[in-house]
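At this stage, I needed to go through a protein sequence along with its fold in token form, as given directly below:
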Amino acid sequence: MFAQYCKDLWYGVTIVEYLNRHTEEDPIVTIPYVLKHYQCALRDGNNYSIFWNSMREKIKRRGPEAAEQLYQDLLRENPGFFDAPGVVVTLSRGAPILFWKYFNPSGKRVNSTYTRDLYTALTRNQRKTYASAALQLSGYLLQDLAVEYRTESLCMIAVTKDGPALKYVPRKTDKIVKAAVSQSASAMEYATLAQRIKFIELAVMGSGKLFGDYRPGGFSEKDWDRPWAMEVWAALSDTRKEDLRKRWKKQRDDDEHRWHWETR
């Protein structure tokens, strides 16, 4: 019964043979054919990897212009084609410009493991062009953007997404530092001592905003003894530190109590 339902599984091992027999076949032919006739076989991890790796290498060899033509052809043949697992990843990794030019603005995603590879594969000018889209996926990609292109607005996008991306901000204004610390207290490591002192309450307590059961920013237990925190405590009175710690603990207790009752 299983074999009847998943009959193409019997031909799973021939995926390699099929690829070997059609080495010059265009991916626009191969991809739809295999997805149609080898659906069950592709559930096997080995077959899946062999097939998509083969397609990705073909796309790489043909260059970005051919990859873009492939994208347009596939889209014209079947508008819903890019919902198929593996297609976006394969085309993007074979020609990274496709991800930024077509998939990212429309909301399609690849595994975050590949995001930096997709961005660093772009040319210097392409990184500038797609910087905003890239930084909305990962603020840490700011490090891969030329310093002269790191505008205040792009830096703000980066630190709002990932506070510690403050490390790669060339001009750390109070406005940007505040946004970074609001996202993560860890950003304090990359602020000046004067800014750490100025924003210590924000770092400890967080922005006060709640998203469901998540409160962005705020100290963890370990943050109290970080080297940068110790510099702040040395500049402040013990009374100030203890007051912050009491308020921080009360907020944590209140949050735990509220979350406990909301999940009952």
